[in-house]
Amino acid sequence: MLATQLSIALHNSWCDRAADAVAKPWRLVPRGALDPAFVLFAALGLLLLGLTLAWSQGPGVLLLVAAGTAAGYAYNAWLKGTSWSWLPFALALPTLAVCSLLVAGRLGGIPIDLYLIGVPLVLAIHLADAVGDIEGDRLAGSHGLAVRLGERRSFLACWAGLLLAAIAAASLRPLSAGPGPAFALSLILLCIAVTSLAWMPRAHRSLIFASAVALAVDHVGAVSV
Predict the structure, then answer these.
(1) What is the per-residue pLDDT for 224?
(2) Block mean pLDDT (10 aa), the chain, length 225
(3) Run of H or E including 72
(4) How far is CA 150 from the centre of its chain?
(5) What is the DSSP string of 158-198?
(6) Whole-number Å distance between alpha carbons of 220 and 34
(7) DSSP assigned state of 79
(8) What is the C-alpha end-to-end distance of the chain, expressed in Å?
(9) What is the pLDDT of residue 45?
(10) Is 85 in a helix, a strand, or coil?
């Protein structure tokens, strides 16, 4: 996972080299500290290393790691700056949880619940992260989901996504495992995040992230028992 995540990060830098030369010239590639060809070579080398290590854990792990990495590459090359920019994350992050359960030997059946929860959860995270950059993205010609929705609707969609994920998690968890403290913490953090816009708007993104992590930890812990 470390190798493939580094691969995605380097590939992202390679894909953004032209845009960064204008908007972020201090980065390593646009300022000439790293050669773009070397960055791409390193990204592909780390990709090969990551897939080789995944194969050592079995073909199922290889398939899941490859799918998650492909989502990251698709984001870098095609989907960033579009209304579908959230989709690779919505597919890749639940896949990471599935892969972890498989490696731990605790994956039973097809984990549809992780994707039903993960898609609205990741959408909420994505909007919380992007809403603060709406003006800059609009000036740069980006057509991401937050830019299309605008600030007000982005916040509403963010909160609705997190609440929908919580409802799905409560509905899809095993009958023997009731919501735990992390579930309650997630809802509390969501409420604080909603009210934080009036008195501490800079904390909103961190509160949404923390709420999402608490919900994910609660659900994955419940299904892996």
Answers:
(1) 66
(2) 94 86 79 89 97 95 95 91 86 88 80 88 92 78 84 96 94 78 95 92 94 90 70
(3) helix 59-74
(4) 21
(5) HHHHHHHHHHHHHHHS-TT----HHHHHHHHHHHHHHHHHH
(6) 40
(7) I
(8) 23
(9) 97
(10) coil
| Residue 17, token pair as written in the block | 């080299």
For the chain, the residue count is 225
Report how far residue 14's alpha carbon sits from residue 89's, in angstroms, rounded to the nearest whole number. Answer: 19
Calculate ∠ Cα 74-72-67, nearest 5°: 90
Exposure letters 71-84 (e unless 16+ CB within 10 A, then b): bbbbbbeebbbbee
The domain ranges of the chain are 1-58
Give me 94's structure tokens: 């639940």
3-state secondary structure at position 104: coil
Neighbours of 137 (CB within 10 A): 16
Q: What is the pLDDT of residue 144?
A: 82
pLDDT at residue 225, as a whole number: 60
Q: Residue 57: what residue type?
A: Q
Q: Which two tokens stand for residue 139?
A: 């000036």
Asked if 197 and 208 count as a contact pair (C-beta separation under 8 A), the reply is no
Structural contact between residues 128 and 157, judged by C-beta atoms closer than 8 angstroms: no
Give the position of tokens 């493939």. Answer: 4
Task: Say what the pTM is.
Answer: 0.79
Token pair in block for residue 1:
């996972």
